[in-house]
Every structure is written in structure tokens, then in C-alpha cells.
């Protein structure tokens, strides 16, 4: 039986990146409208919002690759230390790395047997800090952040009045935050409503702040 291919991003990562893109869109459309709205109209706001999310999509993707590489190198160094250190010190390090719940239910004999199996593993000479999967995930993050900006951008293509376009855009973003928050809550296995309303509330606060400062 063949293994299923590993997804580029898990559902929580995908939904989180969409939420991030929507929150960025809410922030930038409001603040940019106060700066560019009178100068270039809706086109200036649209270009500014898309440009900011493209930039943040790139930054978010690069940071994903960087943090993944650092964590992978740290993990490899930890395994090397378990093999290299005396057994007593390796046992102490291994126990410290276990989650509290796992440590409480594991007997000393079980943890030592597992540690010995880890120490017996051979080091992979083909180990790479950055893999092709990481680059695919970074590109997927970039696409999610940028494409999440597109629905809230539609009003700026159809409505000439900057203030009206921004309010319609805010409404679309809030609805999307509600839906994505509900999906995130559903994925946790609990009621979807608290997460849905929480995401919408965060977006509403951003809208209120931008209005307060003239957005």
C-alpha cells in the first residue's frame, strides 16, 4: 500500500494564511485610502493594497522557509547530541524534550528503550536544511496571502467612490473572515461559532481603528 503524498500545507496553515491576508487587506485598504484616496482615487488604493499583500506574501513565504530550516537544523543537532552524549546525559535531554503529558504516562523502562532506539539511528548524510517541499509551501503561502486580497479588491474595480468602495471591501473581508474562522473552528473539533465570531471581531476592530484615524 503506497503512502499518501504529504500536503504542501496542512489545513490550519492554509486557513491561517488566508486570515492573515484578509487582516492585512483590511489594515492596508483603510490606511492607504487616507493617503492615496484623494490623489489617485480607487486605483491608487487598489494598487497599494495589492502591492502590500504581494510584499507580505513574499516576506511570509521567506520566513516560513527560514524558520523551517532553523527548526530542522536544531532537530538534527538534538539527535546528534543524543547519540554523542553519555547515556545518563542523553536520557536527561530526552526526558526534557518530551511533552509533560507523555512524560507522566511513560515508564523509565519505556523512555530508555525509545532513547536507545533513537541513539541507534544512523545519521542521514543527505540531510538538507531546505527542501523542495519547503519551497512549494512558501509559494503556496505567497499565493494564499495574495489571492485572499482579491475578493475585497473587487469593489475598488467597480465603484468610483473611494469611501464607498472601502466600506463594501470591508464588508466582504468581514464575511470572509467569518467563513474562514468557522472552518478553522470546525477543524479544531469544537463549535465553529466562537472562532468565526472571534475572527470577525478582530476584523471589525481593524475597521473601527482605520475609521477612527480617518480611513
List the helices and strands and how they pair.
Layout: H1 11-84, H2 87-97, H3 100-105, H4 108-120, H5 132-147, H6 150-158, H7 162-187, H8 192-212
Helix pairs in contact: 1-2, 1-4, 1-5, 1-6, 1-7, 1-8, 6-7, 7-8
Could you please describe the fold and organization of this structure?
The protein has 215 residues and is mainly α. It has one domain (11-212). 82% of the residues lie in helices and 0% in strands. It contains eight helices and no strands. The protein has helices at 11-84, 87-97, 100-105, 108-120, 132-147, 150-158, 162-187, 192-212. Helix 1 packs antiparallel against helix 2 (87-97). The chain is elongated. The mean pLDDT is 84.
Distance between the termini: 57 Å
Q: How many domain modules? A: 1
State the shape: elongated
- In the predicted model, the low-confidence regions spanning at least 5 consecutive residues are none
Measured by DSSP, the beta-strand proportion falls in under 5%
Structural class: mainly alpha
Q: Overall pLDDT, averaged?
A: 84
Radius of gyration: 23 Å
**Count of extended strands:** 0
Work out the helicity level. over 70%
- Describe the sheet with the most strands: none
List keywords for this structure.
0% strand
Question: How would you summarize what this structure contains?
Answer:
By secondary structure, the chain is mainly α. It is built from eight helices and no strands.
Amino acid at each position: 500500500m503506497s503512502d499518501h503524498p504529504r500536503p504542501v500545507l496542512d489545513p490550519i496553515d492554509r486557513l491561517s494564511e488566508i486570515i492573515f491576508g484578509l487582516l492585512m487587506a483590511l489594515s492596508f485598504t483603510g490606511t492607504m485610502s487616507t493617503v492615496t484616496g484623494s490623489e489617485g482615487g480607487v486605483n491608487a488604493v487598489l494598487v497599494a493594497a495589492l502591492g502590500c499583500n504581494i510584499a507580505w506574501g513574499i516576506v511570509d513565504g521567506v520566513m516560513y522557509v527560514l524558520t523551517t530550516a532553523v527548526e530542522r537544523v536544531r532537530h538534527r543537532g538534538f539527535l546528534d547530541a543524543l547519540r554523542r552524549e553519555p547515556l545518563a546525559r542523553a536520557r536527561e535531554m530526552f526526558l526534557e524534550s518530551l511533552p509533560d503529558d507523555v512524560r507522566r504516562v511513560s515508564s523509565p523502562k519505556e523512555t530508555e528503550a525509545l532513547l536507545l532506539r533513537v541513539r541507534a539511528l544512523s545519521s542521514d548524510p543527505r540531510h538538507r536544511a531546505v527542501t523542495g517541499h519547503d519551497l512549494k509551501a512558501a509559494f503556496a503561502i505567497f499565493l494564499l496571502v495574495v489571492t485572499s486580497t482579491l475578493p475585497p479588491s473587487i469593489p475598488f474595480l467597480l465603484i468610483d467612490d473611494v469611501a464607498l468602495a472601502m466600506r463594501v471591501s470591508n464588508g466582504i473581508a468581514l464575511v470572509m473572515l467569518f467563513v474562514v474562522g468557522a472552518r478553522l473552528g470546525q477543524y479544531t473539533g469544537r463549535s465553529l461559532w466562537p472562532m468565526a465570531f472571534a475572527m470577525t471581531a478582530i476584523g471589525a476592530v481593524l475597521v473601527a481603528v482605520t475609521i477612527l484615524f480617518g480611513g
